[in-house]
Amino acid sequence: MSPSPRARRLSLAAVPFAAAALAAPLLATAPASAAPVPAEDAVAKYAALGDSFTSGVGIPDQVDAECGRSDRNYPTLVSADLAPGSFTDLSCGGATTEHMTEPQGSNPPQFDALEQDTDLVTLQVGGNDMGFADIVTRCAVLGAFDPNGQPCKASFTSGDSDELQERIEETAPKIDGVLEGIAERSPDARVLLLGYPVIMPDDGSNCHGTVPIAAGDAPWLRDSQKSLNDMLAERAQAHGAEYVDTYTGSVGHDLCQPEDVRWMEPLNAVDAAPVHPNAAGHEAMAGAVLGTASAAPAGRL
């Protein structure tokens, strides 16, 4: 199947937003290709770990139906650009941090992708540990009946407590465990921990006719996602990994945007799973990874 018009319109080069310039906006024009990794830093073994935001669920062509893994997901695009000596992608839809060491159906433990001499690892996990699917489902159902209120926020909060914030805090030590496990198995690997790209509009608005999220819930969900990404960035820094910001550059490409603009699909998804990145979104995330990979790691000259 040939790439969609949307995918053809966006190249990897259009989104090289590096971690070294997290707050910089995407440029309207960009170099013909992402900055190449210097030869002395060429990647020998690249391992990709993650959940459905990594696997590319629903994006044609699917090369692993059980895991929803696409041949156009961002790890495959990164591998095509870096041309490592070997590339292993064990990302799988629905994966949690437990699936780094435990099998998930026919998919082996994702840590099986790691070897002693693996020198690049990308990781994107944590959303399912805090119940991403449950949150989306509950908010959509409640929002359908109270479009102008904040019914989902009310259902997750009580007094001064916020269940989503508590879930994020509970997920943090699990991320610690994953990063520690990678360091044990691949001690010399450069580890890039990706955050999650924009889902709902960054300005706090909603598009109830497309996705039934209530007006009052939209900014709360946005803030919860930012809190999750902040936690991931903190855990990366604490473990000597590098955080890849996929959110900043994706602002304006949320699921409320038209088909030729959005990088995140709404409920009536086209060539991707609902509330997941589409092919253009994966190209954007690949650009973020390549931008980070082309820069010298912190502490290196």
From TrEMBL:
Alphabetically ordered keywords of this record: Hydrolase, Signal
Pfam family, one: Lipase_GDSL_2
Classification via SUPFAM superfamilies: SGNH hydrolase
Lineage: superkingdom: Bacteria
Entry's Gene Ontology molecular function annotations: hydrolase activity
Record-annotated SGNH hydrolase-type esterase domain positions: 48-284
CDD domains: SEST_like
Signal peptide positions (record): 1-34
Name recorded for this polypeptide: SGNH/GDSL hydrolase family protein
